[in-house]
Amino acid sequence: MILDIVQLGDPILRRKAHKISKVDNEIRILANDMLETMRDSFGVGLAAPQIGESIRLIVVENYEDEATEGAEKKVYKLINPEIVWRSEETVIAEEGCLSIKGLVGQVERAKSIRIKALSIYGRPINLSASGWLARIFQHEIDHLDGICYVDRATEVRQINQEETEDEEAAPSDKNNESKTTV
């Protein structure tokens, strides 16, 4: 089911989300609906507060190996994700957000991170991520803490109509650097 994505100005985006204490079928259904909503909006990540739920749940979809032609997309559905390590090396890149339409900004993020979380079945998992995937995770976990990318961004600017059309025309192009909506 496609859910409504709340926009900046809604107080839920500024609240720290609650930990999920019970992983059940309701959470799994919500994660699936979030994934469907994210895909419908041409995003690569979505946090539960963005659909009006103040709980610590994120979904992310990204190519497992961006350098390999024909690489498969990998889906992550993470409960109570927590960054437990960040590299000292950082990268500045452009980000956008499904909850802040029409704007993008330059954001500095750790190049690599490690995350601990629960799987959609309540099992503990540990992940390492670098590059674009690390950026997506950091962006979505920020949402769980009431932080929006514009709080960290420099050089925030409006997306022009041509960029919007390009992004919508090529939502599945894994090498499309303009795909910034996380």
UniProtKB/TrEMBL annotation:
What is this protein's function per UniProt?
Answer: Removes the formyl group from the N-terminal Met of newly synthesized proteins. Requires at least a dipeptide for an efficient rate of reaction. N-terminal L-methionine is a prerequisite for activity but the enzyme has broad specificity at other positions.
PANTHER family membership = PEPTIDE DEFORMYLASE
- List the SUPFAM superfamilies: Peptide deformylase
In the UniProt entry, which residues are flagged as the active site? 140
Q: Give me the ranges of the annotated region Disordered.
A: 160-182
Q: Which Pfam families match?
A: Pep_deformylase
- Tell me the GO BP annotations in alphabetical order: translation
Which range is the signal sequence, renumbered to this chain? Answer: none
What is the E.C. number?
3.5.1.88
Q: Which organism is it from?
A: Flexilinea flocculi
Keywords per UniProt: Hydrolase, Iron, Metal-binding, Protein biosynthesis
Q: Quote the record's binding site residues for Fe cation.
A: 97, 139, 143
Write out the catalysed reaction.
N-terminal N-formyl-L-methionyl-[peptide] + H2O = N-terminal L-methionyl-[peptide] + formate
* Name of the protein in its database record: Peptide deformylase
Give the enzyme's main class according to its UniProt record, as a single word: hydrolase
Membrane found in the keyword field: no
* Cofactor entry: Fe(2+)
As recorded in Swiss-Prot or TrEMBL, the protein's gene is named: def
Q: Which GO terms describe its molecular function?
A: metal ion binding; peptide deformylase activity
Give the protein family. Belongs to the polypeptide deformylase family.
Q: How is the cofactor bound?
A: Binds 1 Fe(2+) ion.
